Fold this protein.
Amino acid sequence: MLLEQESDNGVIWVLAKNIPKRILVHQTNYSNMFPTIEDIAKRRRQLGLKQSQLAKAAGVSQSLIAKLEAGTIDSSYTKVKTIFDVLERLEFKTKVQTEKIVHSEVFSVQRRDPIFEVVNVMKEHGYSQIPVFDGKQPVGSISEKAILRQILSGKDLEEISKLPTEDIMEEAFPQINEDAPLSLITSLLQTYSAVLVSKKGVVIGIITKADLLRML
């Protein structure tokens, strides 16, 4: 048996047989306990899915997804549950994949560090670009290309080696939350050479283009 309750967010379905009778006799705010129809669009976008892709994965029509998201139809519990099951499965898969490729140790330099220290870090750890920090806050990035441009411009090598990193650093790598969908990461890596992973505003990891190959 299904328990159906109207709320400001739409219809909430609950498997009544799984709820003790002592709970059913009380007025319960199920909208705070169970996902709502509005969550479908939000979670689909976070995963970078089109309506047609979600519909195919859930075995329903694209028009059903569109109508549910628009709030123009009340569907059966079975179909709605199937859609949420698919979303949860894809969210878990994305999280597992992201955890497989993120580097928890972030090799970086401070913005006032001289270029010769940047070169040493790159040589020691085998990176061609690294983030630049001001304390714990990322403020830029530095790459081999940026350093080579200084060399090729004809400047004195000793002078270049003593330059503070902030003088020639480039824009900072974009930051994403630790639960960001894989689709967002791959999209950013089409433009940037790396992305920083943060938790509550603190950088906890880094993902580079090369890391995507580890997923194969």
About this structure: The longest helix spans residues 77-101. Confidence is low (pLDDT under 50) at residues 1-33. The radius of gyration is 25 Å. The chain has ten helices and eight strands.
